[in-house]
Amino acid sequence: MQPKRHPIARRRGTLGFSLVETLVCVAALGILASLAAIPFRSALNQHRIAGVRTELLAAMQWARWEALRRNTPVTMLRRADCTTPLLHHDDWHCGWHLVAGAHSARTSATEDAEILQTFSIPSGLRLIHPGGGQALQFARSGYPVLVAHKFLIGLPADTREGVATTRHTSTLCMNRTGRVR
To answer: 125, 118 in Cβ contact below 8 A?
Structure first.
């Protein structure tokens, strides 16, 4: 008669996962990862939009300060030198130049003005300045020349005709006194 063995000792050859169990676990992990990718992509887009908004706000404040410091008009002038075609004169998704010099709202920064800095927008985002056109000019006093300015930052499908269509679109408004909200 053989001695009795412990139940675990009998299954010594069957320890571990079978191929079917492993495939089920990998499939479940794939489904969970695909469900997590949507909120991750949304958070990434919100972060990119917030970064452009912060950079635009800083450029506006710097342009105001430079206009006061230099005692000359400073203009934020949209760039048109990117590979993506600009559909309207309000599209700023190529970025903008910060230009100092005595000039009115122009469409090119190559004239008698000094380019202080050039800003770019990450690909996949759209920046529009509805009704404001190609330039945002600050007078010597540091106040914007036009009455009010509005910028929309978002994904291309989310910013249509100057209207924010989703929660991923960020709006930046500047009033006549230069206050930004």
So the answer is: no
Q: Are 122 and 48 in contact (CB under 8 A)?
A: yes
**Contacts of 78-83 spanning 24+ positions with Cβ under 8 A:** 78/129, 78/134, 78/135, 79/118, 79/120, 80/107
How far is it, in rounded angstroms, from Cα 88 to Cα 48? 23
> Which residues neighbour 26 within 8 Å (Cβ) at sequence distance 6 or greater?
none
Contact 101, 120 (CB under 8 A): no
Give dist(CA 55, CA 98) in Å, integer. Answer: 12
Q: d(Cα 163, Cα 148) in Å, to the nearest integer?
A: 16
Select the highest-mean-pLDDT range: 8-17, 35-44, 60-69.
60-69
| Short-list 66, 90, 67, 87, CA closest to 78 | 90
pLDDT tens profile 60-73: 999 999 999 999 99
**Could you tell me the pTM of the whole model?**
0.72
